[in-house]
Amino acid sequence: MEDEKVTLRYNAMEVSEVLDGILESSAYNYYIKEDEKRIFIINNSIIYDELPDGFFNDLEKGEGDSLIVQKSNAPPPTFYNEEVSPKEKKYPVARIGKSDPNNLQFEYTLSGRAVNVVTREPVPDLTIRVKDMDRFVITDSAGNFTIQVPAGYNKLVVRAMGIASTEREVIMYNDGNLDLLLEEGLQQLDEVVVQADAARNVEDADTGSEQIDSEASKNIPLVLGERDILQVAKALPGISSAGEGATGLNVRGGKTDQNLVLLDDAVLYNPQHFFGIFQALNPFTTKGVNIYKGAMPVEFGGRLSSVFDIRTKNGNVEKLAGEGSIGPVTGNLALEIPVVRDKSSLVVGARGAYADWILRSLDEPSLNNSNASFFDGILKYHHKINDANEVKATAYYSRDAFSITSDSLYNYDNRLFSLRWDRKISERSTTAMVLGNSNYGFGIDFDGQANTDFKLDYSINETEFKYKFRTLLNERNTLDYGISAKYYSVNPGSIRPDGNESSVSTILIDNEQALEGALFLGNEYKLSEKFLLDLGVRYAFFAALGPGTQQRYQEGLPKNESTVQETITYDGAEVIKTYGGPEARVSARYLFTPDFSIKASFNNSYQFLHTLSNNTTVSPIDTWKLSDLNIAPQTGYQASLGLYKNFKENEYELSLEGYYKGMDNVLDFKTGADLFLNENVETEVLQGEGKAYGVEFLAKKNRGDINGWLSYTYSRSLYRFDSEFSEERINNGDFFPSNFDRPHDVSIITNYRFTRRYSMSANFVYQTGRPVTYPIGTFRFNNADFVAFSDRNEFRIPDFYRLDLGLNIEGNHKKNKLAHSFVTISVYNVLGRNNPYSVFFVTENGEVKALQSSIFAIPIPSITYNFKF
Q1: Which of 27, 136, 202, 775 could form a disulfide bond with 787, CB atoms 3.0-4.6 angstroms apart?
Q2: How far is residue 189's CA from residue 195's CA, in Å, rounded to a whole number?
Q3: Is the bond into 76 cis (omega within 30 degrees of 0)?
Q4: Shortest CA distance to 197 belongs to which of 146, 289, 125, 291?
Q5: Domain 200-868 adopts which CATH fold?
Q6: Would you state the CATH architecture of domain 44-182?
Q7: Taking the model in full, what pTM does it have?
């Protein structure tokens, strides 16, 4: 018995009452044998001196001579013979709860948390199954689980990728808690490209969800040898970009600004370096990303297309560890530093580029004075206060600076901070409190030969608070609910003369402010073992705030200077305009068999934030614009339906999913629009409708010497801008393809392991050429030559395809080494395909000539040295 003291005071009480008080908070029961005046203390169980009511089946006579057998109303007593059980066990038998003769049930609730025994990190997506029964549960992102287990003796089978398979014996006397301390398995994570729970794709109710582990990018050959989970994401169905060198991702026909990218709960506005060639995430500090492109969790909102929920590793709480790499243009280093043993740790990551030497080595005089560099750093502190409280804090900063011409220096940066407190209120309830701040900005320093030097800048800042709860009502109902609030502050841009001799005039655009909030409630309801329903509702609210000025235009007329009706001035914190409405989150899963399911989902969203850009790439002068009096929020809905099948004990996965998306108030620009430093930008943009639809196919092999996946997407992304006024109409008001409409998209990722030290990988991509607008003729007017263009996006550039190859060579696997290393040799664009990124036109000697720009037109070899200790 535990060495615990209980101090109580009794006077003239029955012995049974005294024992009830003493043993109330323990797992012990007692039995009084009055004839011998002896008292027995029993661990968990009950001593019976008579069989409980209903122990034997009651027989009743029915009609005629038939007998009706009635089932017992109480479970039988639990029998476990300690003497005949194996003496040597890795884990002792876990006795859960305390038997209560007044509350005997056929099954009880077992809750707990799965934790890595070495790192003390939670183990998500762990399958816990009751042996010899079709009953299982999967741990959440914090490692928590709750499962209904039959009364009495049971075996729990615990399995997950990277975790040693384990069986735990439990005896269920009542509801109780069991934390699982798990050891890492012998599987090498680099054998799996996209890592997930073995049956998660079939068993969850989510449609269009993907998980990528940072280790998955280790064996995929990418440009200049850089690991990049966002590039890996582009190899999955439904996710693409406008082309090489294009920043941002297009998910299921949505614009790049319709993705919510989170790094440890804080928004990351620009997750890529150098126009999308590199990710702005340190691969050695990044744990992985959960992508939601269909059924979006109820806590997320504010974007129409997707959520990229990126998580940073928790540090090692036992010993110092690190990982790094040295490549042709970048160097990475990450350290995991224990602060308080077994309780807290610090993760420090730094990464930088030294690409200037490449530009200077090119045989091009105009690039001799060019430079291009970037760096990013991350700091994460993780502290486990006790079994019920855990705190995480993350700080991140990145900066890009480049100058391709000798007179302009471009720079842009991201800064964010997040603080999260996870708390376990009870065995059935947990909470998470999150505070985050994000800032994104860019600047241009122009130093020309004339007196036109200037400095230009732009920034957006947001602060968010979120408080969410998760409660297990019973074995069938789980509630997720909470509140979030966000404050925006936008500097729309300014330009100032640089130096006393500059003739540039100062332009300052008024700042913008806004509040965005939401209430959300979701219920995961398990109707049966086969049918799972996830219902949610979210109410989104937005208020544009002063101080500021807004133009009101005449009703029924196009917005321009001549139709301004009045100019309204708003004081500080005065409400300019409010928007909002309910958002649905509905998804369902039906299991035909344990490895075959059908899923469906529907959701709608509001987006109060927009990007203003007339380029297909996210350039440094793309700006974010808040909804206001004249620019309404974007709205959209999406419906999905899919089939999911696993084979050969989840070694193979197949999925086929279709979707349809409708959008309203999407933004585009008028021909020749001037968007930056425009006080009345609403006169240059249009708002119309959009639609996107498609079918996604994925075939994946998760294990073995040969593994990888094949993805194919057929999709369309179309927009329409119609008006009775020609200046607000595009392509005569008909639907036309978006800049990133690529009907056919194929990706093949293959990895082959020759030995434990040598492996080879290949990456093949094919995409339909993206739309482009061509000149179709010339005409002369007032003694000047002009070009007549086709309808917008009427033509397409040539199709895109690329093959990449890589060879991974690991060092020897001796246990006692200062550091373990491996070398990656890769060739990007092996075939030397001159894939055009864009086509543009110039006039020479009265003739219009077509030219194309390409990012990588030749094979790009690289070698990267990686080490880990």
Answers
A1: 775
A2: 8
A3: no
A4: 125
A5: Maltoporin; Chain A (2.40.170)
A6: Sandwich (2.60)
A7: 0.77
